What we know:
The chain is α/β, with parallel strands linked by helices. It is built from 9 helices and 11 strands. It has helices at residues 14-23, 40-52, 61-70, 93-100, 117-130, 147-153, 168-177, 216-219, 239-256; strands at 10-12, 28-34, 55-59, 81-85, 105-112, 132-138, 162-165, 181-185, 192-193, 203-208, 224-227. Strands 7-6-5-10-8-11-9 form a 7-stranded parallel beta sheet, sandwiched between helices. It has a 4-stranded mixed beta sheet with strand order 1-4-2-3. α1 packs parallel to α2. The two termini are 33 Å apart.
Amino acid sequence: MPSDVSPTPLLPGIKPVLELLHDDPQRLDHVYCKKGLRSREILEIQQRCRHAGIRYTLVEQQALDRLCREEGAVDTAHQGVIARLCAASFQPLEQLLADAMHAPLPLLVALDQVQDPGNVGTLCRTLYALGGAGIILPLHNSAYLGPAARRSAAGALERLPLARVTNLARALDEAEEAGFAIYGAGLRHDSINAFDQAPALPAVLVLGNEEKGLRPGVAKRCSQMLHIPFARPFDSLNVAQAGGILAALAARAYRKS
């Protein structure tokens, strides 16, 4: 596991944040602006955040100072603006879908509001090792891909293709139109035992939130639901464990075909 995992990446300062919003907005996870600032640059930052779908929050000066201290950016001149960066880079969904067909394992994993960065990192690590094609994440209400995700991914977060989408249900529709079967993970009256029938590839495997599972609008995009049979009475596996098992089953079936 890499030993050079740095603290949460922060980008302080008005000009650097504006430049990144212009050049590569997907690298931004969240922008914090000091309350009361109304300069042209500050208003442009907020406008660009709204246009790009990036969250921004108005906070007091003390909150910005504390954020710098807690994240290791001591004595930083933030000028009333701090951006929190993702540790990973993203690509357009169209490119992810096209490239997935040529992956050693043409399986994409879509995460429906999965909140734990450790789960996302572990899934990246497993999927990358198996030859998987990448991960699709919603722009909002997803885990922050910072140091915790990097630690769990052990280098895979920077190597595995990732896409962030505004609307996950619509992204699944696009994937289906591109020739991908859409599978959801969950126990339902009509779900299939994953040990008896692995996903037919190319496919997207959709994993739900740790507590709530798949949202109804996302679940109805899944042509089939898969469940993992338990040999003993047990509540559930976490999303990283379940996703890893289902991806491994898909890999075994694909390599036998």
